[in-house]
């Protein structure tokens, strides 16, 4: 097989790595643009029809690295994180930590971030930074534990549903925090958190993380019931234990945290990004090719591997590698998204283009977010036959399920990215479409995928970024 390795830094990354000092990188223009949430003129141009073949090294998980950065606020010692994806959301979190008084060094070449917060300098989060990502909400837990106070604007992130934070706030209140909610601002204050029994109505991912981190330094024992046990949470809990926390029950819906007086520094390796891995797995199958995913944790990819196999693909696994190969046919499969180990909601939009190429009718039921199918309009522009069932009134039309009729040939078109995950979904559709696909609002991809274009090009995709990040 004509293997194209992307193990080392790709060319565009290399340019970034050779160049600027940390300070400039942190305040680089694309990050600034993303923080201001401004769309750019940049577009991705893809000529469809190339079969992808080669190896892709999977980066560290965004949704673990961001929480580990937040966890660094729990100690005055140094926290070193390796295998950190060099993406805009990480840079944005680094900025937020700096505002709180942390010294943060981002070493792009080694994918390493060092953080040390000797003292918390302020407890009011700058609104534009806080709103830049949904993940910023997890700093609330460490800030309450360390400084006893935080005020923040309601967090941002992708527009995929309502995304409230009531479970985080209810949990803090159970631990003795006074929570005041203004129109757009929340002010939380506590003398010292105390342990509590917390039942979550839904196993919120960031909710579990924020409460678990807060409880590590609370007086007494906290139990979180109906906790989320996504792999990134288990990984974070283990990191906290290495910092001196006393957490048990990780990987189950019952987490117990015995509070301790202080936590110490730690050096960690961020676990692989299962969502990036799923994206490249689909890229292999949709183009009729084969890709070896390197540096993955196989068990975290079980839902993806099972569905790909059911659709007719070949999936081989050995140690921390997975070979994904298109089969002789592509069959329709049904998908419903659920918390782990259910099929991840973040891979729903990644699978959708694949289903347009499968024979038969696939049914997709989005059960985590109430509004995560809007992007399918973009695939319709390319010729897909996706019938979304919508409900609601006026501007509140919501959709949670879709029927995908396939196979339908896709044709290149000018399409838009709506959020991180649907952005890569339209790229995958472009890989198999006839002619040129142009994708706008590309900044969404920078938020969550390290060198996405470079990695795709290295395995044979004909894809160009008209204005790659500096
Ligand atoms: N929910 C509530 N109340 C709450 C919290 C959540 O009703 O207080 C509901 C939400 O509205 C949603 C469901 O619970 O319908 C799931 O939300 P959850 O809180 O679990 O999601 P999250 O923590 O905001 C994280 C990831 C998402 C990922 C979900 C599900 C981060 C920064 N984000 O979001 O990732 O989709 O968990 O696994 O960790 C992405 O990476 O692109 C992304 C969107």
TrEMBL record:
It holds the Pfam family EPSP_synthase. One of its GO terms (molecular function) is UDP-N-acetylglucosamine 1-carboxyvinyltransferase activity. This is UDP-N-acetylglucosamine 1-carboxyvinyltransferase. It is found in: Cytoplasm. Its main location: cytoplasm. It comes from Parenemella sanctibonifatiensis. GO terms for cellular component: cytoplasm. Residues 46-456 form the Enolpyruvate transferase domain.
């Amino acid at each position: 097989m004509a293997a194209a390795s992307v193990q080392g830094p790709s060319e565009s990354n290399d340019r970034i790595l050779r160049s600027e000092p940390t300070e400039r990188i942190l305040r680089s223009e694309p990050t600034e643009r993303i923080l201001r949430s401004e769309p750019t003129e940049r577009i991705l141009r893809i000529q469809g029809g190339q079969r992808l073949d080669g190896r892709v090294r999977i980066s560290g998980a965004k949704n673990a690295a961001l929480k580990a950065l937040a966890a660094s606020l729990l100690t005055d010692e140094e926290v070193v994180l390796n295998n950190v994806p060099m993406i805009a959301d990480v840079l944005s979190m680094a900025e937020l930590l700096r505002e709180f008084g942390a010294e943060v060094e981002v070493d792009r070449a080694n994918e390493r971030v060092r953080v040390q917060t000797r003292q918390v300098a302020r407890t009011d989060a700058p609104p534009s930074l806080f709103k830049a990502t949904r993940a910023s909400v997890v700093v609330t837990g460490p800030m309450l534990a360390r400084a006893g106070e935080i005020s923040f604007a309601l967090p941002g992130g992708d527009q995929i549903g309502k995304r409230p934070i009531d479970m985080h706030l209810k949990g803090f209140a159970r631990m003795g925090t006074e929570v005041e909610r203004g129109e757009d601002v929340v002010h939380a204050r506590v003398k010292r958190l105390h342990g509590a029994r917390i039942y979550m109505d839904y196993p919120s991912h960031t909710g579990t993380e924020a409460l678990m981190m807060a409880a590590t330094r609370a007086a007494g024992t906290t139990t979180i019931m109906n906790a989320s046990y996504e792999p990134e949470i288990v990984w974070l809990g283990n990191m906290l234990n290495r910092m001196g926390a006393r957490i048990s029950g990780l990987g189950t819906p019952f987490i117990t945290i015995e509070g301790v007086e202080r936590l110490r520094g730690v050096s960690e390796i961020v676990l692989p990004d299962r969502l990036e891995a799923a994206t490249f797995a689909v890229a292999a199958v949709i183009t009729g090719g084969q890709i070896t995913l390197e540096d993955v944790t196989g068990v975290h990819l079980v839902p993806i591997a099972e569905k790909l196999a059911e659709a007719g693909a070949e999936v081989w696994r050995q140690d921390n590698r997975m070979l994904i190969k298109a089969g002789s046919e592509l069959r329709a499969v049904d998908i419903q998204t659920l918390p782990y180990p259910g099929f991840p909601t973040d891979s729903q939009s990644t699978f959708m283009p694949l289903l347009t190429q499968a024979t038969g009718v696939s049914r997709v039921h989005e059960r985590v977010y109430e509004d995560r199918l809007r992007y399918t309009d973009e695939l319709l522009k390319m010729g897909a036959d996706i019938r979304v069932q919508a409900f609601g009134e006026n501007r509140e039309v919501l959709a949670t399920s879709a029927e995908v009729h396939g196979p339908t040939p896709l044709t290149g078109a000018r399409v838009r990215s709506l959020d991180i995950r649907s952005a890569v979904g339209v790229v995958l559709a472009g890989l198999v479409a006839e002619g040129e696909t142009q994708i706008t609002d590309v900044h969404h991809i920078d938020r969550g995928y390290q060198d996405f274009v470079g990695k795709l090009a290295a395995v044979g995709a004909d894809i160009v970024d008209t204005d790659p990040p500096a």
